[in-house]
Amino acid sequence: MTLPRPHRVDLLIALAGLATGVLLWSFGLYTTGGRLFDERWAALVPLAVMAGAEALRRVAPQTALAVGTLAIVADQFTNGNLATVLMFTDIVYAAVVYGTPGQARRIPYTTALVTVGTTVAFLVWWQNAFALLVGVITGIVSFLPAVTGSIVRNHREAAESARLRAEQTALLAEIDRAQAVVAERARMARELHDMVANHLSAIAIHSTAALSLDDPGTTRQALTVIRENSVAGLAEMRRLIGLLRESGAETEPAATASLAGLDALVEQARTNGSASGLRFTLDDARREGPGLPAPVELAAYRIVQESLTNALKHAAPGEVRVALAHEEGALRVTVTSPYGQRPGPRAPGSGAGLVGMRERVALLEGSLEAGLEAGDGDGDGDAKVWRVRAVLPVGASEEEERA
Predict the structure, then answer these.
(1) What is the DSSP letter of 379?
(2) Domains in the chain, please, with CATH?
(3) Model's pTM, two decimal places?
(4) Using one digit for the tens of pLDDT, what is the confidence trace for 30-62?
């Protein structure tokens, strides 16, 4: 088995321990005397082996502990060296700090059993208090370093866990921030499209009519509609800019679109669509009572607004009907417009309006259907209509208030 390359710091510790041991040996400073191997050179063998194990304390702690244990046992049969004992305590400490989790749990218990066993054995053998001193020394050499290593390892693991939790918290915060930014960008895109597209579509249609028809009356009427929509669009843009600014102490909250403005919205559509042969009707069958939740009213208003804008762009001459009903715990919005060949100018579409409507309905956990359907059988024959149906849940609490 090839051992990994020792850490530079561990090599320095091993060399320092070996040099200290040699220095003590040269002065004849031993820990004991009169042992089995009483030759002067014998104490250097465990010292050199212990220094080699010390070099592996970090990269191979289990191997270092096994070799160090053999060396400290061998040292007891020589005159002994204090540096050998000190390096063994460091090896026990390192085995707990750098070893596997299982090894770190077992070593303190093992050294405790060794300390107790050694004390009991010497008490039985010597039957005097000196055996207790041997037990204390054994605990200092083995059990105390193991407990110290366990404390240090627990602190390091706690610090690492805290660091990982901090990183995870920062990552989650960044994800939440990114999601909030995306959601806010989507909300602003919906608001910008819903507020401005209606006015710009009317301006595009009537400006095209004014340029293509050489009729002073038609041109004047088109310019009047263009001016009205330009002023209204500018007001809507200013309101949106006000929403995007940071609110200050003197800033008043901007008004939110609601179903109370549907009459004005439909009247504006009549003005914009009269030149295209479109008629607009509003059938509001909601029950009298407290107003709906603000998010529901805003979503319903924007759905009607976008549907009327699409009718101005694409609908054939005929009646555009807007119907609202509040039943079964939900607000139902239906907008029907005639489908077919359209005379006169048309405004291009991008499809963003339907996407915005679906997003608004999804946020309220409602449903939306939009597509071609057969006519209502009111004299149109096989004519088809474009119908938008939205179901917006009101919520149980709102229903209880109405009851």
Answers:
(1) S
(2) 8-169 (no CATH), 259-403 (3.30.565.10)
(3) 0.54
(4) 877 667 777 888 999 999 999 999 999 999 999
